[in-house]
Structures
1.
Amino acid sequence: MSQCKLLLVDDEVEFVNTLGERLSMRGIDVLIAHNGAEALKIVEEQRPQIIILDLMMPGMSGLETLKGIKAISSDIQVILLTGIGSSTESVQGLNDGAFAYLVKPLQIEELMKKIEEAAVLCPGKFTKDE
Amino acid sequence: MNNDVTTFIGKITAGATHEMNNVLAIIKESSGLMEDFISMAKPEQLPQRERMLNVLAKISAQIERGVDLSKRLNSFAHGVRDRSASHELNKSVTDIVALNQRFARSKKATLTALPSDRHIYVAMSPLQLQIAVFTCLEYLLNLVGPGAIITLKTVERRATEAVVDFVVEGIERHPKEILSDPNATEMLTTLRETAEQTGCRIETNEAPVWFTLLLEKSAA
C-alpha cells in the first residue's frame, strides 16, 4: 500500500520498531512515535491518515493522545492497541472517536484487515501497489 | 486474609501480567518478522526453510500459551482485589483450572473444566471462591494417584443454588478405599472448615462425583 502515511505510537520501543518493519514490508509508509507528545507533533507536521495507538503509555495516556489527535484532525482514523484488562478504556476510546481496537499481541493479518478498512475512510486513500 | 495484603498482591500481579503480555507481544512480532524474512527468501537461499518455519510455529504456540496464562493470571489478580459480593462462576472455575495445570501435572493428573453453557452468578467474592475451589483441588490432587482425570463441572442446581462437581475418573483404587484413609478423613474435615469460612458447603457423593461445592446463587 502507498500514498498514505501510518503512524505507530507505543512506548515499547522493540515492539513498535519491529511492527513498523513488518508493516513497511507490506508496502505501508510507517512513521513511529514513542509517546503521546511525540505523536501529536508528528500529526501536526506530517498528517498521517491512520494511527495505531497504544492505550497504556506513561505520561500522556492513549485516551488523552486520541483526544489530541482528533482535535487536530477528525479525519484521521485511529486504531487502538490494548493490553489485557483494558476493556473499559477501549470502549471509552471508541466513544471518543477511535475507528477500532485490537488486543496485544497482534495477529498481523487482523491488523492489516483493520488498516485496509480504515484506509477506505481516509481522504487520500491507500492504493495497493503490489 | 487482610484486605491491604490482598490488594497489594492483586496490584503487583496485575501490573506484572500486563508487562508479561508486552514481552510476549514483542516476541510475537520478532518471530513474525523472522517468518516474513523467511517467506521472502528463495528456496535455494534457505535450504532449512521448513525446519525454521517449524521452530517458529513452536515459538508461536508457546506465545499463545503464555498469553492465555497472563490473561487468566491478570483476571485472578483483579478478582483478588474485587470486594463485590457477586460474580460469574464459570469464568472463575475455568481460570482456576488453567492456573493449576502445573500442580496437576506434578501429580501426573489431568485437570479440566466443564462450564455450564449458561452464566451462573454466585453470592461470594472472587477471592473466596478461588480459595474454596483451590483447597478442594489441592485435597483431591493429594489423594488421587497418577492417571486421574479431574473435571470441575459447574451446574445450576436450583433457583437459589449452584454447584461445582469434582468428578474423578481414571484411577485404579476405589474412592471409598481412598476416602476412608485417616489422612483423607482429616483433610476432609479441614476442607469443610475452609469451605464454611468462605461461605459455601461441601457435600460428599458417590463416584465419579467425589464431592460437590454448594454455592448460593445471586442476581447478575
2.
Amino acid sequence: MNARSQVLLWGAQRVSAMVLALCVVVHLITIIVAVRNGLSAAEILGRTRGSFAWGGFYALFVAAVAVHAPIGVRNICAEFGWRGRGIDTLMFVLALSLAMWGFRAVWAVVS
Amino acid sequence: MANLQVRIWRGAETGEFQDYEVPRLESQTVLDVVTYVQRRLDPSLAYRFACRVGVCGSCAMSVNGVSRWTCRTHVSKVATNDRLEIAPLRNLPVIRDLVTDMTEFFDKWTKARGRFTGNKTRKDAFAQVNPASKQRKAVDAAIECIGCGVCYSSCEVVTWKPDYLGPAALSRAWTLVNDVRDVAQKERLAAVAGDAGCHACHTHLNCTERCPKGISPTAGIAGLKRAVLTATLKGEL
C-alpha cells in the first residue's frame, strides 16, 4: 500500500473516531434511559420501528465501526509483524462483514 | 556512605550482567560510576562518552530499566537501596557492553529528510525569520535535540515496528517543516508519511517523558500527521 493510502486510512480512522465518540455517548445515554422501566424487545422495537432518526443514527454508528475497527486491527497486526496485501485484503473483508451484519441488524429493528 | 552495588551488562546481544562494588560519593553521576568501573576495576569495559556535561549526547544508557543521559543523572536520583543496573540502550544493536550501534538511528534522520535544503547563495541577503512567529516557536521547541537516542530507546513503537523512523528523526523533520527557508517541504512530508513514518505513532508519550532536553517529539509528530494529511487532501503528496 502506498504512503498516500496509508495517510488517508489514518485520516479515516481519525474522523470515524470522532463520529464514534458521539455515537457511543448517545448510545450509553439511550441504554441508561431505556432500562429504567425494565428492558424488553417490544420496548426497543417500539422506539426504533419506522423511525428514520434511530435508523439513521445506528446506520451512521455501523458505518463508523466498519471504517474504524479494521484500520485499528490492521495497525495491531502490523506491530505483530503481519503486514502486506494479504492482511489488507483480510481487513477489507472484515470491514465489509461488519458493515453487512451491522446494517442487517439496523434494518431488523427499524423495518 | 555505603558502597554501591552495580550490575553492568557485559557482552553483545548475548551476554550477562556482572556485579561490581563502587564507592558511593556525593554528587556522583551514573557516568562517574561507569568510569570508576572501567578505570579501577575492569579496563575491558566498553562505553561511550565525550563532553560529560549534557551537550554531546553520546553517554545514554539504560539505568535501572530507564533510558537516561548518564552524565547528568545523579546516582541519588536513580539508585534504589544503593543498587544500579546499567545496560545498553534498547532498540539498537549492541556492539559491546554499553556501546550500541547508532547507524540505523542516524540513517533514519536521513530517511526523514532531516537535512536543511535551502536555495539561497551567499550573495543573497540574510533570511528574516520573526522570532515571535508560530513556525519559529515550533522550531524553538524541538531544536535543542542532542541526538542521544533516549527517545528512540524508550519508544515501544520502534520495538514493534523496526522500520518506524522514530521520535528523534521525526522531531527533526518537524523543525524543518517549520523552517520557512527550507525548499524541500513536499519531499520531506512524503518521506515522513505513512505506516513507517509519523502515522505509526500511538502517542504513548514515552519519548516526551524521557527526553533529557525536555523536548516533546510527540507534539512534533502530531504536527507532522496534520501537515501530511492536509498535503494529501490537497493532492500534493
